[in-house]
Amino acid sequence: MKIVLATRNAKKVPELRAILADAGVSAEVLSLDAFPDAPEVPETEPSFVGNALLKARAIAAHTGLPAVADDSGLSVEELRGMPGVLSARWAGRFGADDQDRANLELVLDQLADTPPERRAGAFVCAAALVLPDGTEVVTEGEMRGRVIREPRGENGFGYDPVFVPEGESRTTAELSPQEKNAISHRGIAFRKLAAEIAAMV
Ligand code: ITT
């Protein structure tokens, strides 16, 4: 069996491969690099679940293979749940090299006057599997924590340098990839999805 990971985020591919392998899914996991003509799928839905399904449906239709996608983001209580589904482009559209830093700096600016006790938030993820026969499976995961004031750490991507998970003193950018996968929103959602895939094959 082959599975396509419907993501253009190169950092997500090894995360997802590792989680599927750990769950005993022995499928060949292809990335979108194997499908240069795959469509760009605009994330037009108001929910993580809706956008994950959009991406997985489009790539399953294009490739004729089972497709897995996720939509994820940072939800900050003080910002009424935002950036949320707008996380990837929160600061507007920047070049690929500057996008994450611009997004993160905007959130830090928005929370500049917010005291520590009101800086709670969570990384949230919806993961979707769509099969060519139309079968759809959706799972969700969350990692609660807080937004700190100064970026720390080099690992991960996006808002990792400013997010400290509950029970941790390090940011998710200071955790190893294995440590982050074990507790992350995407790790949780993908382990649930991997269990469903393992039960199907
Ligand atoms: P694909 O849609 O191609 O998968 P993407 O990076 O645009 O790639 P999302 O639409 O899921 O992915 O947007 C997620 C954004 O939310 C991402 O760009 C980060 O800014 C943030 N984000 C999601 N998961 C994160 C994580 O584990 N660590 C840090 N930031 C994360």
TrEMBL record:
SUPFAM superfamilies, alphabetized: ITPase-like (SSF52972)
The entry's keywords: Hydrolase, Magnesium, Metal-binding, Nucleotide metabolism, Nucleotide-binding
Primary enzyme class: hydrolase
Binding sites annotated in the UniProt record for substrate: T7, R8, N9, A10, K11, K12, S72, F157, G158, Y159, D160, K180, H185, R186
Gene3D superfamilies: 3.90.950.10
UniProt-annotated catalytic positions: D71
CDD domains reported for this sequence: HAM1 (cd00515)
InterPro entries, per the entry: dITP/XTP_pyrophosphatase, ITPase-like_fam, RdgB/HAM1
EC number: 3.6.1.66
Record text on cofactor binding: Binds 1 Mg(2+) ion per subunit.
Reactions catalysed: ITP + H2O = IMP + diphosphate + H(+); XTP + H2O = XMP + diphosphate + H(+); dITP + H2O = dIMP + diphosphate + H(+)
Cofactor: Mg(2+)
Family: Belongs to the HAM1 NTPase family.
Subunit architecture: Homodimer.
Classification via HAMAP family: Non_canon_purine_NTPase (MF_01405)
Name assigned to this protein: dITP/XTP pyrophosphatase
Organism: Nocardiopsis changdeensis
